[in-house]
Amino acid sequence: MIVVMKHTATKENIDDAIARVESLGLKPNVIEGSERTVIAAVGDERIAGIESLESCPGVDEVMPIVAPYKLASSELKPEPSVITAGSLTVGGGHVGVIAGPCSVESEDQIVATAFAVKKSGASALRGGAFKPRTSPYSFQGMKEEGLKLLATARDQTDLAVVTEVVSPDDVELVSKYADVLQIGARNMQNYRLLEAAGKSPCAVLLKRGPSATIDEWLLAAEYILDAGNPNVMLCERGIRTFESHTRFTLPLASAPYVQERTHLPIVMDPSHGTGHASLVPAMSRASIAAGADGLIIEVHPNPDKALSDGYQSLNFDQFAETMAGCQKIAAAMDRTLGAL
Amino acid sequence: MIVVMKHTATKENIDDAIARVESLGLKPNVIEGSERTVIAAVGDERIAGIESLESCPGVDEVMPIVAPYKLASSELKPEPSVITAGSLTVGGGHVGVIAGPCSVESEDQIVATAFAVKKSGASALRGGAFKPRTSPYSFQGMKEEGLKLLATARDQTDLAVVTEVVSPDDVELVSKYADVLQIGARNMQNYRLLEAAGKSPCAVLLKRGPSATIDEWLLAAEYILDAGNPNVMLCERGIRTFESHTRFTLPLASAPYVQERTHLPIVMDPSHGTGHASLVPAMSRASIAAGADGLIIEVHPNPDKALSDGYQSLNFDQFAETMAGCQKIAAAMDRTLGAL
Amino acid sequence: MIVVMKHTATKENIDDAIARVESLGLKPNVIEGSERTVIAAVGDERIAGIESLESCPGVDEVMPIVAPYKLASSELKPEPSVITAGSLTVGGGHVGVIAGPCSVESEDQIVATAFAVKKSGASALRGGAFKPRTSPYSFQGMKEEGLKLLATARDQTDLAVVTEVVSPDDVELVSKYADVLQIGARNMQNYRLLEAAGKSPCAVLLKRGPSATIDEWLLAAEYILDAGNPNVMLCERGIRTFESHTRFTLPLASAPYVQERTHLPIVMDPSHGTGHASLVPAMSRASIAAGADGLIIEVHPNPDKALSDGYQSLNFDQFAETMAGCQKIAAAMDRTLGAL
Amino acid sequence: MIVVMKHTATKENIDDAIARVESLGLKPNVIEGSERTVIAAVGDERIAGIESLESCPGVDEVMPIVAPYKLASSELKPEPSVITAGSLTVGGGHVGVIAGPCSVESEDQIVATAFAVKKSGASALRGGAFKPRTSPYSFQGMKEEGLKLLATARDQTDLAVVTEVVSPDDVELVSKYADVLQIGARNMQNYRLLEAAGKSPCAVLLKRGPSATIDEWLLAAEYILDAGNPNVMLCERGIRTFESHTRFTLPLASAPYVQERTHLPIVMDPSHGTGHASLVPAMSRASIAAGADGLIIEVHPNPDKALSDGYQSLNFDQFAETMAGCQKIAAAMDRTLGAL
């Protein structure tokens, strides 16, 4: 940690800051610069209260040096993790593809979608049963009934099931039906939920919050890892920016950046990341070319009649065409894709 | 709702879109423009699936006309709501001031702070017992023990207690000790929690998520109102922007803007909204001058030793001085402030 | 244009707004909704003063329907434009690759770079002679001397020269040496410069400003087109967001989105778009997979000794490897790349 | 400057980085941390090429310690600067108020506005003659004719004239008519213009670019100061964020933050900073309460007929009322306001 003193800091201020660094169990190295004094504090920075050093008189800024996460860090485990859950494999040169509707709406809808996405090469089925919705007046999901329909679709297609869980109380129930628990963007910092997912036997797909920094996202993963569940996939679903022509901005450079920092695999979500079906094929291909380990794509038999997210859902033909384009890119990258 | 067709839309596309508008129970008005056709759809827009119209062939864009929230809207209830919870009143020409530490750390700390902030004119005490922390390695709060210490401080000072609740399972417990439940920024879209808070007898302080739009924030309030709790205060605590010299950007224009849209009172949080103690006095005064109905300010006996948020906490003297400045501004605005 | 009245608007307010719409030469269509009145105004919206309608009493919002640009619009010219300037072709199934140093530093540097990037398949040479620098204390470029060195490099390699122009007064001079004038991000709304570039015989590469909306960017292109120069290439170089691990955020979905709206080709800049050399190869490949028409990449013989932008520059070997990866993706996309 | 090595950096990498630090004329201090090595480099960081250190093998990050600007810094000149230009004084406990239309449209309009704003207490007149407009189809200003009308208004009211200059070639002409040259947000990094303004006898009002960091803004001021003009006022006019209910987000904390870093006074622009006339009074008052040194407000005789920016312009009565509110806040702050 680097403690930068103000140029107006007195000798007493500097001595006090040094004492505070020592009282936190760190070793201070004092460097007198041309304009300011800087204290480089050596030791474990991940301790309670450390940022309060900034309140010491004469301190201008406190800059961390070490990543705040440990278990998620590639410094701890340099080789990339490969996560497998039923028919889904993500990482290790294989691009897993999760596809399906935003919400489970009926048996016909989910089973037909499962067969269709499998045929086009998807490796897992997504579908929401517990839906966190912005408005209390929107469709809230079929709940346990939806989970049962997902299980039916899995029985018929052998596709692994990825579905969202929104409350720690539901983790046990959802884990009975799902292969992968999805933690949604709105719940990325719902720490009780992260801890509960950390105790589930299922793998976890952890979506990035739309204003979360990468450190905050990896610290959220750290909660799950720290609770004992090593099977965490990160999912980039877009950040909120001034850009309004897309619903969110998909910062594709997250994929290679995150892969430098963590061993956890990263799945891209071009559906939420753009919010427009017409942009999904291009961003799916681009995700693979950028080196992402997986894709999650919204597919619906009739997007214009979907109860949620229709504007960003592909129909079956569009998904088939998207997958064909993705196969070519995966081959160019020497990677395998989906169920193939 | 306005449905804008693409300039390439065919007659068939337009007819299909009209039929979809009708099937949703809305009345279509077709306007043939110089370059495009537009369908103005009259009726209640707040229904499931409506945004999926965007997936109809030939549709370019769907623009809502009506605010998506109802109970929170000033169209429903034009007169501003005044919320009272114990010693705290927010709204109606009175600026309520909530002050105290980020976390309850000990009886000495919380009781001393309660007396100090009361002396300077605060109307309520804040203090976190259940702490949602970005890192699993940070101090996580004293939990129920912390709630008991808050109750002790209330017994001695008569200040209302404002404290955070992070899980629906805890709402009953926290409601036993608190006057106001705080829903934190990370949980603004934790809908189970909102519903549970909507059934509590306590008032609710609903913080804005750092990337939430104002519509999303008011829809979160709508969940609480819809569950039966009319005592909701909004709390603006800053949004995430590219600006990094402050931890968040406090968009003060939220106060007058929100007051045009909703009857719910709005409390500003200059501590989280700036992230630097030195900026808190100026932004506290500015909040009152902008017409905010309340303030929430972090105060700690020794900010440089706080277990959380020390860098943005005022010490007792700084808080007293801040309140003196705020009193002058409140008087210039013909408002009363805090406990006075 | 859609004029949304407030729910409190009086009959008189509505009549006044209708009269104002008519006085602007537009035809009003009045729709009485369940909660509000809406006026759909038909006619050419691209006229002075139109947004001032928002100031009429009782008006809540004014929403444009038609894109504000004309000449740049794919509504006017549906087939994509292909731009050729010397050895550089961008668009029409061909991905043009512009490569070279941020700044021209010496004859050795620029000539060696020209040969190296040509060998790896680049189709044009970039290099800055007039440098707009954030700090007055940074290297400001070699000016005309730098232009001459670029011309020398072109003489020896036949690569087209792309170089920045920062002032209308310099357009004539720079046009003598360059094949393509680059308008930098900081100057995207320097309208005098756009007008001057619009009169140059050279093609223009127009970078997006880091906080420009896509409409603002296309309107900047419109200035150049309107001044008589049809050879405009758009260049996406990243936007400013809260994300700080990359210097800017490269919103790759711009490529397919812009291609739906305009006939102008789009070039991606993964160097500025990420700000880290290690992320450039992945984002170069991803740009092609997303369907971009060109790439512009910073290459320097010794990035760690560059006078500017070294942190985001590739060395010759890194560029060769990046191009090899890009070739595979271009082939998978059925496109040709660079000089090949 | 702090050079953070990767945890995988070799001894050779570290030695190379040390050598590079030395070759830049800085003195390296090597600190071996528990997980990484850090090199604190002492000396003047404001030199060409320094950031290229990031490209040295094994270097993870380069963090500056010293502010990149000198002349603008309060480290160089601790006492705040007071700027006077004709009837306008900004700083030193006095809040200067600049008011007038976005564009000069006619003699009647500008003279009537000058008298009206003077009567309400404004200290200077604003009005654009050279207008940088997003669209080439919008009104572009009256040019020199507009400057003459501003001079006429000054002759009749004695109000100082603040007007925008958009090109270095116009600086001489505009300086003949103006008291203060405004550099607009779009031109904040038009360095030729900054240098030309630095040679004008007029004071300069430098608007912040909507995505400029505070360091970039102060470095733009540094260009003007470095060219010899000490009379620079900063103007915060809002930044671009995801928040779309206001046209820009006015980050009011800029005022106190900037005042800690620079001696230059800061003027707030609530008109552009909100984009809605109804929000201007609240944000004007808030600006003063936050300690701003001045205000710039758009005022027009008939906002609903303005040729530009009508939606954010106050009419004469609204301005009078706004000033009355501001006077009360200024008095509460022990400051004088406007012409009083």
UniProtKB/TrEMBL annotation, chains A, B, C, D:
Keywords: Transferase. Residues 89-323 form the DAHP synthetase I/KDSA domain. GO terms for molecular function: 3-deoxy-7-phosphoheptulonate synthase activity; aldehyde-lyase activity. One of its GO terms (biological process) is aromatic amino acid family biosynthetic process. Residues 1-65 form the DAHP synthase ferredoxin-like domain. Its EC number is 2.5.1.54. It is an enzyme of class 2 (transferase). It comes from the Bacteria. PANTHER family: CARBOXYSOME FORMATION PROTEIN (PTHR43018:SF3), PHOSPHO-2-DEHYDRO-3-DEOXYHEPTONATE ALDOLASE (PTHR43018). This is Phospho-2-dehydro-3-deoxyheptonate aldolase. The gene is aroF_2.
